[in-house]
Amino acid sequence: MSQSEYKIADTKGRFLQAVKQGRRLKDVEWSSGRIILSNKRIILVSNDGKQALPLAKVASLTGRYDVNQTVAEVSDYVSVRLKNESVFLLSMGSGTEEFEFKLFGAMLDQTQMSVKHPAVKGGVIQDGGYERAKLKINTEPETPELTVALESGTLVTIEIDDVGQVDSGKQSVQGSERPILKVEHTEGETSVQTYFAGKSHTMAVLESLFNKGVREAQGSVELSETEKQVLMGLYSGVSPFEIPDFLGMDVDEVEDIYDRLIEVDVLEEVRRRREVSLKTRGRNIASEVINEQ
């Protein structure tokens, strides 16, 4: 390694190439060996030799590529997609998620970009523009989070498993058309959106990180129209204690709905009789209902 390169992780695991320049490789098997992560590359070492994947050539960390039954049987692996449309799969057993966050950290830590926070708060568009910011990833898998240090001195912490929705697009930012991400999460009890703008490569990696949180919160659940009305009330900022009067419902009926929504992981109970707050899945459902109207 050069003087500017340093090791971040060195672990045993399995790896294989699942896609070669856009073509899926079905007749592949796992190779066992060392997986080394530095601030500049991933190095795969096996009996067949050594292969390096430069981080600058990583396009994104994507979903599953179960190209054959051997791969499908592995419950957890990291999919590394390169800019040439090749994909490598890395698995370290129980340490896979920890390695994945270290990989996100290697690619995103100290990255500078433009951030607008909050861009939307409680469904209301906020004044203010973009300002320069630096990113920092907490790589502990139990509490994965992104810290955004704004130039104004404000620190914004986004818990990855609290991210409810991610929208990508382009927008004029500080006089030029740039890729942006609109990320929905919470600040206290309030749903907010933070906008990120930066280079295409960085934005693709950042989107992979946020989408990891979105996937954790996804899962279909059937709700009645009344339950959706309760969610929309909470989403718009109505106190859980005021929901009965707000919707013209009996207190006992609202309590029963809270119990049902806690059961299906849409609400979480703050304390008995009866304070609740929206979980990520609940915010997603409320947002979808509002958009449908």
Could you describe the 3D structure shown?
The protein is an alpha+beta fold. The protein folds into 3 domains: 7-93, Pleckstrin-homology domain (PH domain)/Phosphotyrosine-binding domain (PTB) (PH-domain like, Roll), CATH 2.30.29.30; 112-217, PH-domain like; 225-292, Orthogonal Bundle (Arc Repressor Mutant, subunit A), CATH 1.10.10. The protein contains 7 helices and 18 strands. It has helices spanning 69-72, 96-108, 200-217, 225-235, 243-247, 251-263, 280-292, and strands spanning 7-20, 23-24, 31-38, 41-46, 49-54, 58-62, 78-82, 87-91, 112-121, 124-125, 131-138, 145-150, 155-159, 165-173, 176-187, 190-197, 267-271, 275-278. α2 packs antiparallel against α3 and α4 (225-235) crosses α7 (280-292). The radius of gyration is 22 Å and the shape is globular. The protein starts with 6 loop residues before the first strand and ends with a helix.
Which consecutive residue ranges, at least 5 long each, have pLDDT under 50? none
Q: Please state the average pLDDT score.
A: 88
Number of domains: 3
CATH class of the largest domain: Mainly Beta
Radius of gyration: 22 Å
User: How much β-strand is present in the residues?
Assistant: 35-45%
Based on CA inertia axes, which overall geometry fits? globular
Distance between the termini: 57 Å
Please give the largest β-sheet: 8 strands, antiparallel
- CATH T-level topology of the largest domain: PH-domain like
